[in-house]
Amino acid sequence: MATIRMIDIAVNLTDSMFKGIYNGKQQHIADISTVLSRAWSAGVDRIIVTGGSLKESKEALAIAETDARLFCTVGVHPTRCNEFDESGDPETHFQALLSLAKEGMDKGKVVAIGECGLDYDRLQFCPADVQKKYFEKQFELAHMMKLPMFLHMRAASEDFCDILQRNEDRFTGGVAHSFTGSAEDRDRLLSFSNLYIGLNGCSLKTSENLDVVKDIPVERLMIETDSPYCEIKNTHAGSKLVKSSWPSKKKEKYDQDSIVKGRNEPCLVRQVLEVVAGCKSISDVDSLSKTIYHNTCRVFFPHDLDSAADALLDGGQATSN
Ligand SMILES: [Zn+2]
């Protein structure tokens, strides 16, 4: 029987919601292990835990060490780039990131530098010039570690692509995750041959979003949840293409056997796959999952590329029209 195999490339397992805390208030028990077992049962077989600051990257690594199927990133999110200057010594801060990345790589856990990039929708957290300076600085980290990059880009595609272009020789590949841009943004990103596009619920909200997604070649796609954020809501354009669902309950009525309403979690990456298949009119979801799995291994798990290639041969290549 055919089986779906997926890698959720973006899970914020360091978020307090996975400790049962919402807006500072404890609503239920910490439940990462429950969330993970639901993901493994749904066909997820690896997860990349995202780190968005030095502190969070340390936590992400500690979480990744608890299960052989968990991996993580080390880096500083565009909205957190003030932390370099606020540390009092940006160079020491950079060195701390570098040694954490080294430690995590030695443990076989760190698979990318990130998340880093530019976010002009949230300049209130960090001004553009600081974002640009430390986005560029993190290419140095990727280059020194020979790691791909896990990138975040919001409303900044021109500056983002300029910086990428300038650093092309230090960029071995990566993903622009949580893509919500226009057709023009998509084509700009796709012009970098070793850059992939990561899709989640936020990428599939409107019919315009679906039109943009439709023309991303399957060979350049990755899927993610960005849990606990970016779930596919009933009101979203993509939701009519969802096929799988899980029982859900409000956080106040927490039950281990149900997902929490309003909290995204990695098993739901399956729905992202289904919506992407639906909007690209691909009927063979199985084979689409294998192509996307292969893409993800190519960038983040190159040592396992052979097993991903075998899976691809078994399932045949997904095609889109
Ligand atoms: Zn992001």
Summarize the model shown.
With 321 residues, this protein is α/β, with parallel strands linked by helices.
Provide a descriptive summary of the structure in words.
- With 321 residues, the protein is α/β, with parallel strands linked by helices.
- The protein has a single domain, classed as Metal-dependent hydrolases (TIM Barrel).
- 39% of the residues lie in helices and 17% in strands.
- The chain is built from 11 helices and 12 strands.
- The protein has helices at 32-41, 54-64, 82-86, 90-106, 128-145, 157-166, 183-190, 207-214, 269-279, 285-300, 305-315, and strands at residues 6-11, 21-22, 25-26, 44-49, 70-74, 110-119, 149-154, 174-177, 195-199, 221-223, 248-249, 259-260.
- It has an 8-stranded parallel beta sheet with strand order 1-4-5-6-7-8-9-10. Strands 2-3 form a two-stranded antiparallel sheet.
- Helix 6 (157-166) links the parallel strand 7 and strand 8.
- Helix 10 (285-300) packs antiparallel against helix 11.
- Mean pLDDT is 95; it is low at 316-321.
- Zinc ion binds next to loops.
